[in-house]
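Lecture notes, unit on protein representations.

Consider one protein chain, 365 amino acids long.
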Amino acid sequence: MVELCDTVRDGGAAVLVVAVEGLDGGRHAPLVSLLAEQPPWSDIPVVLVTTGGEGAQTVLRDHLAAGGSTTFLERPFRAVTLASIVRVGLRSRRRQYELRDIMADRERLLREAEHAGRMKDEFLATLSHELRTPLSAILGWAQLLSRGDRAVEEFREGLAVIARNARSQTQLIEDLLDMSRIVAGKVRLDVQLVSPATLLDGAVEALRPAAEAKHIRLVKVLDPAAGPVSGDPARLQQVVWNLMTNAIKFTPKGGKVHVRLGRVNSHVEISVADTGQGIGPGFLPHVFDRFRQADGSSTRRAGGLGIGLSIVRQLVELHGGTVRAESPGDGKGSTFTVDLPLAIVHVENSPAGLRVHPKAPSAAA
């Protein structure tokens, strides 16, 4: 029978000390089961204190030794002997925990590598599709127009299609180059005072035709007193354009895109809200991740490479701001909010400067 079952602990490591009497191994089935159910990295050190001599140890070995790292100690024994055995067991257990952590890290790295591999494959498929689509339209119309004998209206239509698809392909390439510069830390900002209201007003009016083409109502509520901010006007315009074009792209006909600008404490807040397809809760935490799209298939309805929002986040952070996304769920629209710090008053009298990405090489280099 079991006289004593105790656990000696040192930090996270533990050794099981069991005092038993009797030769009936069946009585120890619960202990055998406990040891047999250990995970692969685990081998609980067990100290068995017996009173039945060599015969008892033989029987217990048959039933217990296969289930754990077992040390037999026959009574009577010296306390220093038990203490030494326990110390050895604790060291063994700590090494097992280290092995567990190594195995967990290895599994995590393998999962991350597999995930990165899938994302790479999806991105390459998307890139191929996105580059080929406008190119096919350009080549098709170029061949038609080269045959001559075309009506003036058809000629104009063909040129318009070629120009539109050339701009689309150029934008894709620019996005790729921007992401490459950001990753390499080579983005440079031409810092100056910028009026967010002027910037947003220009962006809204420039994109209004695209919204009207989809019968989307474009609403702006701009506080002209919000600002100024210190930043690169071209890059800040890129942020606004990316957010607004995304909103128009993912909003169905008859929807609405609402652009707001206001001051919140020491920050300027820009928000772009839409009544579009929204963002599911599972994808929302990854919406700013590079090369991530809720629908990564090449047959998806919306185009793009899935890097526009990642560029937005990187550029906003380079300006000392933050960006966040909110959505009640699929089909319920989404809101993207950018917070930019107000320009310090004395900056108004300072010459325009050049702010360099923290990773960018110095001019001397």
